[in-house]
Each structure stands twice: as C-alpha cells, then as structure tokens.
Design goal:
Length: 143
C-alpha cells in the first residue's frame, strides 16, 4: 500500500541505510546475482539504483555474516588468547578501523549531506544552481 506525505500529493519512499544495503550497493549485489542466481547484470544494477533487493540476497548475506562471525570468534579468540602481542595488534587494528570509518562518516555528514541541504534551502537565492530538481531529489534521499 502506498503511503503519502501528509498535505502533499507525493508518495513516501522508504529509505534504508543498513549494513546490508551498504554492502549490496558496494558491488556484492552484482557478484551474488551473477555467481549464485545467474541474474542479469542489468537487473542487479537496477536493484542497486532503487535500493530494493531480493529476500534471497538477504538470506545469503545473513548466512555469510553468521559464518564469518562464528569463524572470527574461534580464530581471533584463540589467537588473542595465545599471544599478548596478537591481542594488542588486534586492539590497535580495530581501533584504527573504527576511527577511520567514523571519520569518513563524519566527513560525509559535515560536507556532502549538509551542502545539499543548504543548496535546497537557498536555491531561490542562488541563481547558479543548475538543477533545482536534482538538488531536491538528492536532499530528500538523505532526510
């Protein structure tokens, strides 16, 4: 059933930004589609564009996620238990990854997303904005 934005004639479009959706948009959809399902590349590209994926892709992603999580518990757990040096390196690596990913996300929020929002709100005052419709569509995706 379609949901509408109150007071307008525009449909609400659900927006997801989960680990699964990010993983699939990163190219996994094409790889999984070609390798497991023999899905045409164009269909996978359309799924990436619309951010709507098949349930069987979710099942594969969750199975992969569960298997690698369980494997890492035993492999990393044993390695960290066996050696203080490996444990220290694992802590340093995980801290570096967390800081790097956090910095990338903060950079996105403080630059790309906010600049699109500002362009949308000030598009009337800025005559050099080439495509107001494009700005509006991109901002609506982020909100």
């Amino acid at each position: 059933k379609d949901r509408w934005i109150p007071g307008t004639s525009r449909k609400m479009i659900p927006k997801y930004d989960t680990c699964f959706h990010s993983f699939m948009r990163g190219g996994a959809c094409i790889g999984i589609g070609e390798w497991l399902w023999k899905r045409p590349r164009g269909v996978s590209a359309k799924q990436i564009e619309t951010n709507h994926f098949e349930r069987r892709d979710v099942v594969i992603h969750m199975t992969y996620h569960a298997a690698t999580t369980l494997a890492s518990i035993f492999v990393l757990g044993y390695a960290c238990y066996s050696s203080k040096a490996i444990h220290g390196l694992a802590l340093i690596a995980m801290t570096a990854i967390a800081v790097s990913r956090g910095a990338q996300r903060y950079s996105y929020y403080s630059t790309a997303m906010y600049s699109r929002t500002l362009k949308k709100h000030f598009s009337i005052l800025l005559p050099d904005v080439s495509s107001r419709a494009g700005v509006d569509e991109k901002v609506e995706e982020d909100e």
